[in-house]
Batch of 2 targets.
Target 1
Amino acid sequence: MGNFIKTNQNPLKYVRIKVADHSHIYLRDKQRCQRECENKPCTYFCPTRVYSWSGEDREIKVAYQRCVECGACPWGCPYDNISWSFPPGGYGVHYEL
Amino acid sequence: MGNDRYDVIIVGAGPAGSSAAQLCAENNLSVALIEKGEFPGSKNMFGGAIYSETTATIVPTFWEEAPLERPITEEKIWFMEPNSVVEVGFTGYDFAKSPYNSFTVIRSRFDRWFADKAVQKGAHLLTSTLVENLVYEKLGLTGKKVSGVRLEDGSEIYSEVVILAEGGWANLAEKAGLRDNINSKMLTIYIKELLALPQGVIEARFNLEKNEGCSIGMVSYPTAGAIGKGGIWTNRDTISLAVGGFLDQFNQKGLNIYQLLYRLKGHPKVKRLIEGAETVQYMYHQIPRGSYDNIPRLYDDGILVTGDAANLISGRHGTEIAMLSGMYAAETVIHAKAKGDFSKKTLAAYGNKLENTFFVDNMKVRKKSKIFYQKHTDSDFLISQLANEVAKVFFTEGFRTEQENINNMLKEVENIQPLSKTLSDLYQAVWHWRVL
Ligand SMILES: Cc1cc2nc3c(=O)[nH]c(=O)nc-3n(C[C@H](O)[C@H](O)[C@H](O)COP(=O)(O)OP(=O)(O)OC[C@H]3O[C@@H](n4cnc5c(N)ncnc54)[C@H](O)[C@@H]3O)c2cc1C
Ligand code: SF4
Ligand code: SF4
């Protein structure tokens, strides 16, 4: 579907996330993303764009603060390169309604 | 908390966990119900609707007190093409009165209320508390038995038995060796937008009375070529609009659920229903798509697995099955407590109870449909396209004889695919539309 969100709507605007001070997501082997993973599906399956490819640093950047815990991560990476655990209790996404 | 020893620790205060907690507490077992969210439901979303009959087995006449949105009186399926829709539906006005059939609910409200029922019956609810691991003790000479849980701060809480009701991620079930690795072919992810509109506007647009609601399942167009579904549910003063599907398909096709939602909102049939509505919230969740083969081992020494964590999903009956499995787990644990034995030999009764349920039977049948969809990934799209083409010919007025019309329709059918495949697809689609 081409590049990410072309509209002005921001998927995070209507989500409350209590951000923990440390990341609940890390990449097991950053080299692997560059060397082996051609399509980098994490940059499009993640609905809130936690992952982005940095051309400059030649690596995937992880903005864990944006994670809405959709559940795709542990299984979405074809190389099992994403280590994903829950944010600490009481943190992360929060639905009031 | 340190030295407490409970009869039962339940991980997760969703429908499965809170059902189990209510029953155990009612029967005088000491219960700890542990939830990682700030309150039960704060992490949960679904379409959706809960079914009345099952909920009433846990809380009789729950509709008199539970935070419900609307009783569903209209159920529809839309076979959608970009500029046309074929609608199939059922309206049951009896469903607007007791004992009802199903209700739309918002999980942050419902789950909170449902867990509170367990608290009223004596369960200890711990919120903002993440269980990180299970704790074991020795059993006999070589064996081991689950004897509690470890929290993220390293502290431990002990119990005779642990019921896992942790939902589809099932980290702990996996750690306990009760669940095989699942993969992206078995996982669906969903996005939902909650859209606010005045009650009167919702009723006018959906042709409802004050105390009536509607659910619409949407096939084909919403997922842009991937296997999945869309749905609309009317709440009291909001509309839930959801779309999602299989993760492996999204990966293959380069799709993103947020974009799919945005695209769906632009469909002419959807657009007019949500015109002028204000976005209240986006929500995201996964559904494990089990079939009978993927049900994990359901119990071991000192441990039981329930609900989504056990892949117990059959069609749209997720919460219902979660509640029932929670109930059976509780019954088994109550019996084990009376016997003073929490080994897997006693807990095996849980597996037997489940084997005899309608939903495990359904799952055996649905095993076939999963295979069907894997083989015919295009079937939903062909059916939808076909239904729309044929309906268009049927309803297009012109100077043609009936025989010409029939010939035209047949031509449409054969243009899309050979007739024999069409009939089998149609049969399968009607039979299986509830699967996803
Ligand atoms: C888009 C969508 C639409 C759906 N529509 C419907 C529908 O219309 N009708 C229907 O019946 N079903 C529907 N379902 C399915 C239904 O939501 C699930 O089957 C049901 O919620 C399962 O209940 P559960 O109690 O097993 O798990 P959950 O509801 O997922 O509850 C698990 C709970 O455990 C907590 N938890 C998890 N791990 C831990 C831990 N380590 N420590 C502490 N707490 C933890 C979670 O925060 C959560 O509160 C839908 C699902 C989705 C995603
Ligand atoms: S999908 Fe996995 S391997 Fe590929 S870029 Fe993303 S994290 Fe790296
Ligand atoms: S769990 Fe979902 S929202 Fe969170 S990083 Fe993974 S894909 Fe993105």
Note: Chain B has 14 helices and 17 strands.
Target 2
Amino acid sequence: MSGNEAVAKAALDAGVALGTGYPGTPSTEILENFSLIGGLAQWAPNEKVAMEVALGASFAGARTLVTMKHVGLNVAADPLFTSAYTGVTGAMVIVTADDPGMASSQNEQDNRHYARAAGIPMFEPSDSQEAYDFTLRAIELSEKFHTPVFLRVTTRICHSKTVVIPARSATEPQKPEFVRDIKSRVMIPAYARPAHKRMRERLTQITDWNERSDLNQTIKGNDDLGIIATGISYAHAREAAPEASFLKIGLTWPIPIKTIENFTKSVARCVVIEEGDPVLVETLLAAGLKVEGKDPMYRFGELNVGRVRRILSADTSPEPAPAKGKPPQLCPGCPHRTGFKILKKLNCIVPGDIGCYTLGVLPPFEAMDTCVCMGASIGVGLGMRHVLPDEKARRVVSVIGDSTFVHSGITGLVEMVYNPPKTGHVVLILDNGTTAMTGLQEHPGTGRKLDHQPTNQIIFEDFAKSLGIERVEVFDPTKEAEKFERALAEALKSGELCVIIARRPCLLAAKKIREYEQQAAEANAHE
Amino acid sequence: MSSQTNRTRNTGVSPVRIRNTGVSPVRKHRKQSTEFTGETPVLRTAVTNVVIAGLGGQGVLKASDILAEVAFRAGLDTKKSEIHGMSQRGGSVASDVRFGKNVLSPMIPSGRADFLVVLDGEQVDVNRHVLREGGVLIGPDKIDVNALGNRRSLNVAMLGILSNHLEIDLPFWLDSIKANLPEKLHDANIEAFETGRNAAGD
Ligand SMILES: Cc1ncc(C[n+]2csc(CCOP(=O)(O)OP(=O)(O)O)c2C)c(N)n1
Ligand code: SF4
């Protein structure tokens, strides 16, 4: 089972009433699997909304699971921090799927920082079995201490397949119910001040609990070398140094400092093996423990057995360059291609966004100038338009995908209407009817839910018009390529606020979309 | 599930392996991890490492799923690891499958693969470095794609070749192929598997 399948299975076995999130590699398959095996799973328009929906359900006593990739947690950070104050009634497990090495991400931020910053406990499984077990344990901990709990996984945990033996959750979920509890849930300053104190007390209690728990395992080897490891690094380190003594920490925040101190005293040399930032080692050093970390060169990218060996032998010689594979490209015949051909031909300045279409940055198109985070294309484009000399400003086109537009382009469009640049602006929505990048997920613009069943649909052109944008046009980029090009050229000249939608399904999704539509039509006919 | 899966499985480390790691008990540290390539017979017999590589859309991940399930069905501890998540076709893809009595890291250390199965000619050189000295390369030149009923079952045909090198009984292969593919593709893929199994000629 993959780590993602294991989390989904545990959530189902523990009676999680609602799974919500937003797609993002490597977390996406958790909710897809949860739905497939019978759980109620939903895609939210973005991670912040997902977090809020889960929080509401947890306030009402239900067990919830909310999943996202590491950068998704930035989007959800606002409800996150205050949820640590309010606490929860039913369990709330937040899965953050980090991507060290950036297999499929725009940064490699280490979300262990969030556990400390927000004061939320964090589990870190080291294989699929632990992904399963720790999901159950996270649910228990969450309800025992009334706190949201993190399950931090990484690409290799999510996508590696290892053997899993399922178990039974120890406790039964309670029935959802509304119980008024204004002082814990309404965070006006007068109530938030004591809530902050409660949160810190809770963390102290959880630390004590963690010191006594079986989540942290010591494996006795020889006492020359002790290794403290978390997550996937544990598997690499066990293989790199099988004779060493090990302390594997399962609940990595709040840190079981006494357990760790005892371990460091039992060995002559103690090395902390952690992927990413030196989060754990710095905390231990600050606490005055005698431990070693890794050279800063190992902060970048994933760890593996070879790199752990190098860390243990303090080898800082340059590493061999990784073999260069063939980079992904837009599929032949991808509907996004036309747009980039035109943007290049018209010599546009292109603040871009994240999705398959980011590949428009590569040859032969090289038609993208910025890509920062989801939704940034519109704000960045407006910023450029505000300050560039007119003749350059008139070349700026913000390019954004359909799923990304719903995720965080909507507020950008509102900004465009509210603070229009004097040269106008052009937003190009590449609507391929799916979230292609992450493996063809539905979103509010497709009119289908996570399980591909029909639901209400957001119509982008109507939405743009409802904001007062007058120049709103829709084209099929393949069938109407010339019209599309002319319209874009005219929009740039017009000095108006314009939204152009290039609508044609992703090649890989087209057949499935037709099938879903047919099924929906048949179901309608029966009614 | 198999008996190899109990939670204490990580302790069964053979003593010979210990000597072959970079960290010696006497704290005299060797410089290069590559130094150990080819001198770890016990590691080799304890864990079999297979890398399957090719281009997106060729069925690399499907092939590695099938292989991992074959090993699992045969009662071995099995781990499989890959980077995936991009939908677009055509980029390099590689997947690590490891099986044996007790597998630790899901990733095959560089220069430690016993077998490298490559589905696309141009991906051979990109991936060659994963093979240990004496490791076996199974490239697409080993199969005449035109001999396959359907080119898309090249991935399974390559598994057929690999199966000749592994001491795992045929039924495990056939069951796993069926379990990982929709029924309408069973016949074509079993045929491709047999073609591969016979192509190797030994
Ligand atoms: C905050 C955040 N959440 C999730 C992701 C993962 N992600 C990258 S692009 C993308 C959506 C792509 O869909 P769309 O905009 O429709 O473009 P397409 O891939 O279909 O061309 C997602 C979910 C991310 N990078 N950042
Ligand atoms: S998966 Fe779809 S959107 Fe992505 S490159 Fe291929 S055809 Fe284009």
Note: Chain B touches chain A through 56 residues (CB under 8 Å).
